[in-house]
Automatic annotation (TrEMBL):
Organism this protein belongs to: Arctium lappa
Record-given protein name: Uncharacterized protein
Highest rank taxon of the organism: Eukaryota
Length: 124
C-alpha cells in the first residue's frame, strides 16, 4: 500500500486557455479520448494518492461527469477488487469533499469553465 501524498494535481481540459502554469502542480493537457483519460485519472489516484485533484473544464465535460461519479458515488466497501490481494485506490479513501469554483473566480476569460476540486482524506 502506498502512502498518501501532499501533492495537488490539476487537470486542464483546454490548456491553451490558461495564461500561466505553476511548476508546483502536476498539469495534464487532455488530448486523448475520454475513455483513455479515465484510465489515466485512475492511475494518477492509484500512484500518488494526492491531497487534492482539480479539474478545470466546462460543467458539461464527460471527464468531469466520470470523475464526479467515480469519486463521489463510491461504495463504503468497494467490490471492484474482491479477488485481488492488491486493492485499488477506492479502498483507501476515507472521505472526499468537492468544491466548485466558477470561471470568474479563477480568472478565466471563458465563462463556461469551472474548477472542480476534490479534497481527499486517505486511510493511513
Amino acid at each position: 500500500m502506498s502512502e498518501s501524498s501532499n501533492k495537488n494535481i490539476t487537470i486542464h481540459e483546454e490548456l491553451w486557455k490558461i495564461p500561466h502554469l505553476s511548476s508546483n502542480d502536476l498539469k495534464l493537457e487532455l488530448i486523448r479520448s475520454p475513455v483513455k483519460l479515465k484510465g489515466y485519472v485512475d492511475n494518477l489516484l492509484r500512484m500518488s494518492r494526492p491531497k487534492t485533484l482539480s479539474l478545470v473544464s466546462s460543467s458539461s465535460s464527460e471527464l468531469l461527469k466520470f470523475v464526479k461519479e467515480k469519486i463521489m458515488s463510491r461504495e463504503e466497501n468497494p467490490k471492484c477488487c474482491t479477488y485481488y490481494l492488491k486493492k485499488c485506490w477506492l479502498h483507501y479513501v476515507k472521505d472526499v469533499t468537492m468544491v466548485v469554483i466558477e470561471a470568474a473566480e479563477i480568472g478565466e476569460t471563458s465563462q463556461n469553465l469551472q474548477q472542480t476540486t476534490f479534497r481527499f482524506n486517505w486511510q493511513s
